[in-house]
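Changelog note: in this version the structure field was regenerated for every chain. One regenerated record is shown below for reference.
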Amino acid sequence: METHSQSQLSTIEEETSITGQLSRVKDTGKMMFGEVSQGTSTVSSKFIYIGSKEESSSDIVALREAPVGSSVTITGILKDAPKKSTQKYELHILSAVVHSVVEDPATYPYGLKMHKKLSPEEATQRLTTIRSDTYRRFRDKTFQSIMRLRGYTYSALATFFGDRGFIKIDSPILTESDCEGAGEMFTVTTLDMTTGHSEHDKDFFGKKMHLTVSGQLEVEAAARALMKVYTHGRTFRAEHSKTRRHLAEFEMLEPEQVFTHPDPEKRFEQLMDLEEDMVKHVIRSIFGSDSALSDLSYLDETFDSGVVEQLKSCIEEPFTRITYTEAVGLLQKHVAEGGQFDDMDLFWGMDLASEHEKWLCEQVFLRPVFVTHYPQDLKSFYMKADTGCSEDRVTCQAVDLLVPGIGELCGGSMREDCPEKLEAVMAKKKVSKEGLQWYIDLRKDGGLPTGGFGLGFARLVSFITGGQHVRDVVPFPRSYDA
C-alpha cells in the first residue's frame, strides 16, 4: 500500500493512504468528513467516516479530535463520490495516524480562515504578511501554487536547453572578478573582522575574493570549447535596492553559445531567437500540463491578474524588436504629446527606468519587447561594439528583453571577440586587467565569437505566476532591508 497524491487517486475500491495537513474537518456525531491538503495541487483530498464517536477506534477518535492544521495519514477505500458532490472521489476511512496536532487552534493562523475567499488586495496583503514567516509560509495555499510553478519552470528550462544540446556548467560562487563592473559585491574573508580585513595577501586565497554577481565570464571559457553551455546557480549583489524586482541573493540562468554566421547582425538576431524560444517554451510547457495550468488558473483567479491571457498572447505573436534609439524616440514623443513619467529627463544616453520599460511593453506594443543596440557607455565592458557609429553615439550589440508586469527579464549581448578592442574598452571604463588576463586570452589562439544572456529566474517566475514581488516567488528571500 502506497501513499498517494490527489492526482494519483484514480483506482476505485482500492485501499489507499494519503498524508498531509487537515484543511477541513467536521464531525456531526453520526459521521465525520473533511479534507487533507497534500501540497501537490490546489485540490484537497476528501475523506469520510460513517459512524459515531462511540463506535470509533482510538485512532479514529484521535482524528475526530484533531484541529485543522494537524498532520495526518489516513488509510481507506477510495470510492466514487455522490453525484451531487463537488469532488470526483472520496476516501472512506479505515484507519488514521495523527502525527502532530496544532497546539493552539484558536490562534493558529493557517486554520479554516485561510480557506476563506479573499479579494485580490487581501490575497496580496496576506502574501506580504507571511513573507518572513519561514515556519508557516509553506502552508499557505497560494504560496504552494507559486512554488509548484517555480519548480515546473525550472524543469522546463532544463528541458529546453538539454534538448538543444546545451551543456550545464557550474560556475564558481567565489570569484575575484566583478563581471558587471558596478562594484556591488559581497566580500568573503577569513580574516578577523574586529581588526580589519584589508591585508588580503594574508587571507585564505591570498587575494581579495567576493561572492559572484554572475557566472558569465566563466561560461564564456567553456562555450568557446563546448559550443553551447549554460549555468544556473546562485548570484549575489550588494545593491542597496528595496524594489519589488531586486534581491541580494538570487538565481541566474546564463546561457552562452558560439555564433559563426558571417553577418554579425544575424548572429545577434539568433541570440534573440534563442531568448524568445526559451520564454515561449516555458509558457507552452505550463499550458501543456494539467497540474501546472491548474495552479496558474488558481493564481489568476486569486489575484485577478489576467496572467493566463497575458501568457497566451505571448506565444501567439512574435516579440517586438526595436533599437534603444527608437525606444528613446517613442518615450520623447509620448511626453511631447502630453504623457507623463516619474522620470521626465529623457535623452539619448539615458538609462531606461523600469517605468519606461513597462510602458513600452504594456502600453505601446502589448507584448514582450527586445530593446537592442544600447549606448556602449551604459553597458558592460565585454559587449561587442557596433561598427559605423559616430564618435558621440557608439552603440553595442546589447539587448534587454522587456516583459509586461516586470520590465527587464533578460539582459544579453554578443561578446567582443577582438582582444585589442576588449582591452581598449576595459581601459576606457577603468576595468582592471588584474585577474582577467585569462578572459582576454580567450579571444586568442583559436577563440570563437560567442553571445549570451542572463535571466533572473525569480523575475521569470514572477512573470509566469503574475507575482507582484520577487520576494513572494522565492522560498527564502534575502534582500536589502535597511
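Spot check on this record: Confidence is low (pLDDT under 50) at residues 1-10. The chain has two domains: 6-100, 141-472.
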